[in-house]
Specification:
Alkaline Phosphatase, subunit A; 3-stranded antiparallel β-sheet; single chain; 12 strands; disordered N terminus; 459 residues
Length: 459
């Protein structure tokens, strides 16, 4: 997602005078229930994940699924069946079946961007109620992260949550998936960490030639600008604060941790090397260090790219393999490993990981063994506090052109709004009822007339 220069400045503002000013007017919205720690880990699947091949019906609907999906449909015999349910996961996601069996995973069916409740009929007759620019990568990424379905988002839901949290020396909003809209607050900023290596100061290297020492002196001067005016001083404090945050974070992400041993392939025992696994491994380390960091709440952004599979989504005839299978296999092993790592810390019930993506794919596969941009999709929620075996939302009619399909190729109107999905996780995380409208600008639509947060969690 492209960020403007203004957005970049807001995203990278660290501690110091500017951030301190941002603390004015904050509430105690994120007070820990019963004093307990909480962390939410959003995993954004960039490109538009085919959720219809991630969660698949195994009952009588599977025949219609195969007929409608065509070139990308997966036969029932190879699926990862979910015990005591009418659904299965993609064959490549077997690593998550034990998580389901122990009651630590729930499914959210047919969720997506909605400005107001819609049916196929109202979609056709009420253009004023449709989200803007549906099925566009950049717009739908903005919809998911900014939660303004018919407007321009200048900040994101994680950033707005952080706006209502107390300040800490190292931000409790942390990204391993780069700088994204979700992380921009009106007064808060995120700590953005790499998935490999450590944070470095560009152009700075200790020692060396006279020219290098002079360059270092200039960099240091920028970070200690007191005496050059109020604005320079404020900027210098932010730079110095960012350096201090980097030193703290580098100590955590570069040290060895027993948590790394959980990130292995459950079949071969080999260490996981995918980028999404490396990101979640570092999330685990930051959660392990929560006491040192002084965090009673942590919010993480993780990402995995490559889901825009217009072609070669499947291997043509071997539909349980291909690009999508490789991506989902990496995702499943990373999420399962992360959950086991949290359990080893005694934090299994205190941490919730959940998926997001641009949009779903067309139900009908195309001639290139791929699928195209669509709307609603399925999602996964993993954590020890979810309702065991929970299935939320409703799977659409798999017949093309049916009651949920706005076209004739399986572009399904969502039945669960992003606010109802993410709002449930935010409320579990500790966002107060009073602050839900701040975090979710369209909250009034999704908290009245029988709508509201999904019941994802055990009481």
């Amino acid at each position: 997602m492209t960020l403007s220069r203004r957005d970049f400045v807001r995203l990278t503002a660290g501690t110091g005078a500017l951030a301190a000013l941002g603390q004015l007017g904050r509430t105690t919205a994120i007070a820990a229930p019963n004093g307990s720690y909480r962390a939410m880990v959003g995993i954004f699947l960039f490109g538009g994940n085919d959720g219809w091949n991630m969660v698949i019906p195994t009952d009588a609907r599977h025949a219609a699924y195969l007929t409608s999906r065509g070139s990308v449909g997966i036969r029932a015999s190879s699926l990862t069946a979910l015990t005591n349910s009418a659904y299965a996961l993609h064959p490549a996601m077997a690593a998550l079946r034990p998580i389901w069996d122990e009651g630590s995973m729930s499914l959210v069916l047919n969720a997506g961007t909605l400005f107001a409740p819609l049916t196929k009929a109202t979609y056709a007759s009420r253009s004023d109620l449709r989200p803007s620019n549906l099925m566009s990568h950049s717009d739908e990424q903005s919809h998911w992260q900014g939660l303004r379905a018919r407007g321009v988002a200048i900040d994101g839901f994680m950033g707005r949550m952080a706006d209502r949290m107390g300040a800490t020396a190292t931000p409790s909003m942390i990204s391993l998936g780069g700088s994204n809209l979700a992380l921009i607050g009106r007064t808060s900023s995120a700590l953005v960490l790499p998935s490999t290596g450590t944070i470095t100061r560009t152009g700075f290297a200790a020692g060396g030639s006279a020219a290098n020492l002079a360059k270092n002196a200039g960099i240091e001067a920028l970070a200690s600008g007191a005496g050059y005016g109020e604005l320079t001083d404020a900027t210098a404090r932010d730079v110095s604060g960012s350096y201090a945050q980097a030193i703290t974070a580098n100590t955590i992400i570069s040290a060895s941790s027993t948590l790394d041993s959980f990130f292995v392939n459950p079949v071969s025992g080999a260490a996981l090397t995918s980028d999404v696994a490396r990101q979640l491994m570092r999330v685990a380390r930051m959660i392990e260090a929560r006491g040192t960091l002084g965090h009673g709440r942590q919010t993480f952004f993780v990402s995995q790219g490559g889901y825009d599979n217009h072609s070669a989504q499947t291997n043509g005839g071997a539909n349980d393999s291909g690009t999508h299978a490789n991506l989902l296999g990496d995702l499943a092993m990373a999420m399962a490993s992360f959950h086991r790592a949290m359990q080893s810390l005694g934090m299994g019930e205190n941490v919730t990981a959940f998926t997001m993506s641009d949009f779903g794919r067309t139900y009908r596969g195309n001639a290139q063994n791929g699928s195209d941009h669509a709307w609603g999709s399925n999602h996964l929620v993993v954590g020890g506090n979810v309702v065991p075996g929970g299935i939320f939302g409703a799977y659409p009619d798999p017949v093309l052109g049916g009651v949920n399909d706005i076209a004739s190729d399986g572009r399904f109107v969502p039945v669960v709004a992003q606010e109802e999905y993410i709002g449930a996780i935010a409320r579990w995380h500790g966002v107060s009822d009073a602050d839900m409208p701040y975090v979710f600008p369209n909250w009034s639509t999704w908290s009245t007339a029988g709508r509201g947060p999904l019941g994802l969690f055990r009481a």
